[in-house]
Every structure is written in structure tokens, then in C-alpha cells.
Amino acid sequence: MKKLWMTVLFILFLIGCNSNDNTESDSSESNDTDDSESTEKVEIEVMMFEGGFGSEWVKESAEAYMELHDNVEVKVVASPDIHTQLQTKFLSKDVPDLVNPGPSFDIQGVINEGMIEPLDDALAESAYESEETWLDTFEQGQFNLKKNGVTYGIPTIFSPGYIWWYDQKLFDDNGWNLPQTQADLYALKDEAAKQNIPLFAVPGMHPGYYFYGMYMPLVERIGGNDAILDAFNLKEGAWESEAFLAAAEESQKMLNEGLFLDGTFGLSHTEAQTLFFQRKALFVMAGSWLEGEMQDVIPEDFELRAWNQPAVEGGDGEQLAPISTGWGGAWYVPSDGKNKEAAIEFLKYLSSEKEVEKMVASKGLASVVKNTDDAIESEALKSALEVLQNAGGSYAPTAINDSYPELIGNIINVYQSLMLGEITPEEFVSQAEQFATQIREDDNVEKVTFE
Fold it and tell me: Which of 118-122, 257-261, 398-402 has the weakest average pLDDT?
């Protein structure tokens, strides 16, 4: 009996050892699995347009984000020609996780194809390390990238386009006043001529600058915002309406009266801007990226300031804030991206108040993120924000480029012909209306509503 009990106890001992070994083994395997999951690398591929705003602010945020998140790698690819790379990526469905496509990419087209992720649910979530919703961290004035009531794009940089810029020092030294009306503009031309300085250096090779910086504001000042909305919404006859014709006539008058620098219609945008900073013209038309883009050529004593386009005597419009640059400058999450949730979390970080303040202070950029204005050190950028504040938050519609690229490309080219003296104002508006009619009657082109 004693031997039997000894045998039983020995068997129980062996069973207990095996049980403990299995438990320890299972526990070890479980821990290994947890460690593996927590350290598994998530790569977020970011592709962005390298324009006047640069890309360093994004790359620096990516580095900071990776320091906070050991398991995340953020790869940023930036190029002035990023649209060509993105076209290939979307065609092959080998898309990045986050894109900032720039003005030349057909972002509306890929949205129409269902290839961009709706972001309203994400915007209703908490912002990065905040109890606020993500949406509530943004100023709403330019947060207008919606299609059929759905938000697809997240703007981070504030980018009013086509503001008039001038040198405050040059004006002060000569006792000149800024023109409040078109009549004042011609009077200023006569005063500046005494110093052999014309009013405008425009990039004739890129007529969109003066189409949006001069012509469309004239349309709005003459016919009101409804005149622009009717045209953008393809209302029959809108592009050859009285306001559009009068603005074309005024444009050609400005040309004939000698308001433009000789040779300016053969210049690139950087060439025109360089001549402006050499004080060879009083005004240049560009967006809020101008100072950052041209910082290497700006004289130390140059006091760069922004100005809204003048009013037109007897016109029906007010001085609205300049037309903004539209959808191309925002961030989008491709629906076929491998790491959509991780991309959204990084975008929350990129657009967080703390991170944006660093960008604003160091890069001279402004943002649509709330509570970041105080970090702006650039007097030029402050003056651009003041233009919008003085307009009372009343914006002209977002540029039409992204919605109907072929239409607006054709119209801008014809406007260039007008400014080269090759056609009459009547011919310009007639051709513009013909282009609009083609789009209006083309059932294959999805129509967009501007409000």
C-alpha cells in the first residue's frame, strides 16, 4: 500500500510539473505575442505638393510624431510635380495613406470615383490629446471642402490666394496712399510714373494669377458675389453678362493705360516676384506663401504688406476677401490606403494646436487651426489676415480650378489673349460663355454647386 501511495504521489507530481510548464509556456507565448503586436511597425506614406509653403514643416512634425510613437514610421515624399506621381498611384490603386495633392491634381475626379475617404466621422471624434472634437479645433471660414454635404478635405494652412502685395516702405518714402478705388489706382499710376515705376509685375506665363487676382475681383466689385456664383454654377449667359464684360473692358483699359511692367507678360511667377522685390513694380499678385517662397531675394528693408483689391465706383459688390486657392492645398485620405486609421491619427497630430503653433512661428505660415494667430511673427502674414478680418469674413467663392479644370483652363487662356491685346472684351466673354455652355450641356461632367 505504501508503494502504491508513493507511485500515486509521484504521478501527481509529474502532472503538476507538466501543468506548470504548460502554463509558463502559454504565458510566455502570450507575452511574446503581445510584445510583437505592440512593436509592429506601421508605415504611413505621405505624398505632398512642394510649393511656396514648402514641406519641412510636415517632415518636422513627422519626426516628432515618430519620437512619440515608436511603432510608427512616417515617410514624407514631396515634389512640385507630385500630381504626376499621384496619377500613377491612383491608377494602379497602390495609393499612399495621406495626400496633399496641390493645384494640378484632379482631386475632384478621384472623389467622384469613390477613391477618397469621407472624414465627417473622424471630425466628430476627439482631436489629438484633446476633449474637443477635431472639427471644433478649426476656424470654419475656409473649412468648406465638402461635396454633397460630405467633408473630404482637411485644410491646415490658411491660404488666401491672389492678394495684392506691396512695400510699405516704398509707399511711405514717396508719400503714396493705397488705392481705395479704381480711380485711385490710375492716380497712383501717374504718381509712380514720376519714379519710373509701373504698378504691376504679373507672371504672364501663368495667367491664373491675374485672372483671379485682378479680373475676378473686378467682376465681383462690379456685379456682386452673385455674378461670380452664377458663372461658377454655369448659369446660362453668366459668363457674358454685363459684369463680366465690364471687367474685361476695365482689364484692357488697365493694359492700355500702362499699368503693367514692360515685358511682364513673358515672365514666370518667380521672375515677376523678383522684380517686385527689386522695387521695379508697386504690386504683385500672390497667395500667403509669397514671403516664404521668396525669402532669399527680399531686401532687409522691404516692408512686405498685403492689400485687398480696390472697389469700383458705382459697382454692386463689396470688397470681399480674395478668392481662395481651393481643394488642392488640403489633406486627403485615400480609401485604398493600407493604414487609413493611422493616417487620420497622424493628421490629427499634424493639425493640433501645439504642432501648428510651431509651424506658424518657425515657417511664417498661417493656419485655419484655432488659437494659432498669436504665434505668427511675420508682419506680412499678419497683414494678410487683416485683409480677411476687414472683409468681415465674407469670402468670394473658392477657385473653380478643381471643379472644372478644362473649363477654367480654357477661359484663363482666352483671358491671357485679351491681356495680350489679341482679342476684344466682347470676343473674350463670348468665348468664355461658349466654353461654359459646352460643360453645362455635357452630361458626362458632374456638376458642382457653389454657394
Answer: 398-402
64 lies in which domain range? 42-159+327-371
**Within this chain, do residues 76 and 207 fall inside the same structural domain, yes or no?**
no
Residue 102 has pLDDT above 80, yes or no: yes
Q: Is residue 445 part of a domain?
A: no
Q: What is the pLDDT of residues 203-247, one digit of tens each?
A: 999 999 999 999 999 999 999 989 999 999 999 999 999 999 999
Which of these, 100, 226, 206, 97, lies nearest to 161 by C-alpha position? 206
Same domain as 293, residue 177: yes
Domain co-membership, 255 together with 334:
no
Q: Please state, in angstroms and rounded to a whole number, the distance separating the CA atoms of residues 142 and 390.
A: 16
pLDDT for 357 equals 85
Residue 7 belongs to some domain of the structure: no
DSSP 211: I
Residue 350: phi, psi to the nearest 5? -60, -35
3-class DSSP state of 298:
coil
Using alpha carbons only, what angle is made at residue 321 by residues 314 and 331, rounded to the nearest 5 degrees?
Answer: 150
210 and 356 share one domain: no
Cα-based angle 98, 100, 103 (whole degrees, multiple of 5): 150
